Recover the amino acids of this structure.
């Protein structure tokens, strides 16, 4: 006869280890600390700007911040995927140059706007695939592989044209920068967005969902934590690493569409240094350069911090524009040091 013993009523089913441990909870809080710090810096910049210059907390400032930085937000989302795996993508700025010059020339040659835009996006996807293949199948380090892709894209853009290429005034691509009034404020204090801003918001939502609600996203985090362990667990490491570089390239192509529609022209020197701005936004937003920890929403905050910094420098009038790079470097250094301190604390707790 078999005697079955039931657990007492009210007892927790399963082992106690099924609950997150104290160290796990502390680790999650430490992971989010850089993102919280970036958010506090952003709020502090708003408070300082309002106190020092005025007219910061208003609709038109928010509108300009979103419209002028929508392409950077899109780039930052793509770089978040890459950096979460411990990789890097230096090609996105050059991809924008090649994609935008090609798209404008095709549009001016009589191509349908939809076809021209599609080609711009596919150029980014193709160049991202090139980087992924070099990294995954030829064992090239991400820094070198994407550097090679950067030179390739910049060279192709220069072969197409070395002078600014201007979109026709009646081109439908310009409609992607048409302003849509959301709130009709006093005088010029209106809240407006553009289709480019809407595209950036959609990409942020999709990126967040993919990273936090799908197997692909969990694999991205696992690779960043330990690629060897992810492989031993049977996760699709190869396909995922190829996918993240295709995603980064594709989003660079979309960013090219958004930026070109707003500017109305393209040039082979467009996007120089933008990859560094996007990487800075991702790091300021709390993503570790070593991978495994980070958030898409944090990267958005990082991009907005950089954008608001430009607004404040412009409002001040007495700060030279070159100081933007110096200030960005200082902020980035602080966040890199913060990441190192948190990583050291986490290793100490695990030990």
């Amino acid at each position: 006869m078999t005697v079955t013993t039931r657990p007492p009523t009210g007892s927790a089913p399963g082992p106690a280890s099924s609950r997150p441990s104290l160290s796990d909870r502390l680790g999650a809080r430490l992971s989010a600390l850089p993102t919280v710090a970036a958010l506090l810096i952003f709020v502090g910049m708003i408070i300082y700007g309002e106190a020092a210059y005025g007219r910061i907390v208003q609709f038109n400032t928010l509108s300009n911040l979103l419209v002028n930085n929508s392409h950077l937000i899109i780039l930052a989302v793509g770089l978040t995927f890459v950096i979460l795996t411990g990789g890097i993508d230096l090609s996105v700025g050059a991809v924008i140059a090649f994609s935008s010059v090609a798209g404008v020339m095709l549009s001016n040659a009589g191509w349908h706007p939809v076809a021209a835009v599609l080609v711009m996006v596919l150029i980014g996807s193709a160049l991202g695939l090139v980087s992924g293949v070099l990294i995954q199948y030829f064992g090239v380090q991400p820094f070198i592989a994407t550097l090679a892709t950067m030179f390739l894209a910049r060279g192709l853009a220069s072969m197409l044209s070395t002078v600014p290429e201007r979109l026709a005034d009646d081109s439908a691509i310009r409609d992607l920068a048409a302003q849509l009034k959301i709130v009709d404020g006093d005088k010029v204090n209106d809240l407006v967005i553009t289709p480019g801003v809407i595209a950036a918001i959609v990409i942020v939502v999709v990126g967040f969902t993919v990273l936090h609600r799908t197997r692909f996203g969990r694999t991205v985090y696992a690779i960043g934590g330990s690629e060897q362990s992810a492989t031993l667990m049977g996760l699709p490491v190869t396909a995922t690493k190829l996918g993240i570089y295709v995603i980064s390239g594709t989003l660079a192509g979309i960013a090219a569409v958004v930026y070109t529609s707003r500017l109305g022209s393209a040039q082979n020197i467009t996007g120089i240094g933008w990859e560094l701005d996007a990487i800075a936004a991702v790091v300021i937003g709390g993503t570790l350069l070593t991978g495994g920890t980070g958030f898409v929403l944090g990267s958005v905050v990082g991009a907005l911090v950089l954008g608001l910094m430009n607004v404040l420098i412009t409002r001040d009038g007495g700060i030279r524009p070159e100081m933007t790079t110096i200030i960005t470097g200082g902020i980035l250094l602080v966040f890199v040091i913060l990441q190192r301190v948190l990583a050291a604390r986490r290793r100490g707790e695990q030990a």
About this structure: The radius of gyration is 23 Å.
